[in-house]
Specification:
By secondary structure, the chain is of the alpha+beta class. Helices cover 38% and strands 15% of the residues. It has one domain: D-Maltodextrin-Binding Protein, domain 2.
């Protein structure tokens, strides 16, 4: 399956494009805790959960790389999470990759 890279720079715009044409949106976490700019910036309650609900209704999947976004229990109001969202097949492939290479 051929892939191409598209990045509009807006979560909603990128997500909308993926809904129309297929694909995956990746905003993974970084293991390096001392590098603050690489920590996830998407908020669970305001960004990840609403889009996860929409993509699941469309037959897709949303994950933090380990578990389903809709199963993440919030621990704080502005909790931030990594987000992998889009086609079910592509998200599951990304989860397998993360599971294999994440230590």
């Amino acid at each position: 399956m051929p892939f191409s890279l598209r990045y509009i720079g807006s979560l909603v715009a990128d997500f909308h494009r993926n809904l129309l044409y297929g694909g995956i949106f990746l905003y993974p976490a970084d293991n390096k805790k001392d590098r603050a700019k690489f920590r996830p910036k998407l908020r669970l309650l305001y960004e990840a959960n609403p889009l996860a609900f929409i993509v699941e209704q469309a037959g897709g999947k949303a994950s933090d790389g380990v578990c389903r976004i809709m199963d993440v229990v919030p621990t704080e109001l502005h909790q931030r999470v990594p987000l992998i969202i889009g086609s079910r097949v592509n998200v599951e492939e990304a989860e397998r990759f993360i599971k294999k290479y994440d230590h």
